[in-house]
Amino acid sequence: MTASRWDHLLTDATLATFAGERPFGSIERGALAIKDGSIAWVGPMEDLPGPAGALADSVETLDGALVTPGLIDCHTHLVFGGDRAHEFDMRLNGASYEEIARAGGGIASTVRATRAANEDELLRQSLPRARALLRDGATTLEIKSGYGLDLDTERRMLRVARRIAETLGISVRTSFLGLHALPPEYRGRRGDYVALACDVMLPALAGEGLVDAVDAFCEGIGFSREETARVFERARALGLPVKLHAEQLSDLDGAALVAEYGGLSADHLEHLSESGVRAMAAAGTVAVLLPGAFYALRETRLPPIDALREHGVPMAIATDCNPGTSPLLSLRLAANMACTLFRLTPEEALRGITVNAARALGLSDRGTLAPGRRADLALWNARTPAELCYWIGGDLLRSAWAGGKPLPPT
Ligand code: DI6
Ligand code: FE
After folding, report:
1. What pLDDT was estimated at residue 125?
2. Which residue owns the Cα nearest ligand 1 atom 6?
3. Which of 75, 77, 227 for a ligand 1 pocket mutation test, highest count of atoms within 8 Å of Cβ?
4. Reported confidence tier of residue 290, pLDDT bands at 50, 70, 90
5. Measuring from atom 11 of ligand 1, which residue has the nearest CA?
6. Fewer CB atoms < 10 Å away: N or C end of the chain?
7. Could you tell me where the beta strands, DSSP code E, fall in 137-283?
């Protein structure tokens, strides 16, 4: 008995490959083969090099069901302690952000809860959020630090992010977000905290293999352009790529700064200027749109979608899953919001949670269905790609594969 050519073969699938120029990279009545964790063959069934049963150890016919690359959530803060549902309740009963902040709410309350949780507790609280994203087709997650704001807790957050990958059998890319907020013990001592983040925390955590990229919150209520440049300089010295929360609430020209460093992405971008768009286009920096925060904050100013299109800036979409401004646990819902609120087409939105999201993480081994790419797949109870953005909520995922292995139902 000769060894089969492939480990597994999917047949009679509607493939949304996001490779090539066809809308969604669609292949009707397609087939996809998996070998040693990678995609070995993709194309129309009639082009298969022989009868399906003789080509693979196992064959699964999908009767026309949709197959996409495994979805990629390229911007989450999903590791944290506690939650802020009570603040949501307070706001809807008339309290202002300022009143909540003065009462010790906001990021500071999540920092307290995160510092109080040990590693196992932080993992226990965070796993359900990661599982929710997987139930909706995600197979790669980006997870930031930024609720510890001291070395031990930032380390604990990043260790939990790595353990989520091990526990769930998915890929996790971590981002150090030490410049997320000023911790209370450094009030009036900004410079000392920025030095702690740049000269102590980041080198230590990078040295422990816990950091894949460096991020910062460049905003009036966050950190200045100069402070951001300080952590970017340290990232560059450590050989780490950068990305940035930029132009969320005002224009500090953060997008141009991250482009200057050849950064992977600029994220939020409601206040992005034309010059910022041009700088991103020239640097190949991805625009990561976060409609969940826009929706939860009842924002009204839209990111400059037409300018991003005109200058060919790749657009990605992510949940920005965080307890304060985007408690969003569905990447498909983020894609629906990108269509309904930002007027992206379904083709743009789905590229935004696959191939462009991979690019925002500096990953070229996934995000499309093409030979040689990781066999990260999502099989759907749907027949057309647009359905994934169209249905608001619902359980559309049939099954998911990561690295050529089927993920257990979560
Ligand atoms: N931008 C945001 O909207 C979140 N962080 C950031 O940099 C807010 C995070 C929180 O409120 O917990
Ligand atoms: Fe964020």
Report:
1. 98
2. 217
3. 77
4. very high
5. 324
6. N
7. 138-144, 171-179, 213-218, 243-246, 265-268
Please report which confidence band the pLDDT of residue 1 belongs to, taking 50, 70 and 90 as the band edges.
very low
Handedness of CA 341, 342, 343, 345 (dihedral sign): negative
* Assigned token pair, 389: 């953005």
Amino acid at 113: A
Q: Tell me the two tokens of residue 329.
A: 């646990």
Ligand 1 atom closest to Cα of 84?
Answer: 12
**pLDDT, position 2:** 58
| pTM of the full structure | 0.97
Per residue in 379-405, pLDDT (tens digit) is 999 999 999 999 999 999 999 999 999
Give the integer Cα–Cα distance in Å for 276 and 352.
20
Would you list the DSSP string of 217-270?
A: EESTTSB-HHHHHHHHHHHHHTT--BEEEESSSS---HHHHHHHTT-SEEEE-T
Q: What is the pLDDT of residue 253?
A: 97
DSSP secondary structure of 37-90:
TEEEEEEEGGG-SS-HHHHEEEEEE-TT-EEEEPEEE--B----SS--HHHHHH
Mean local confidence (pLDDT), 59-80: 98
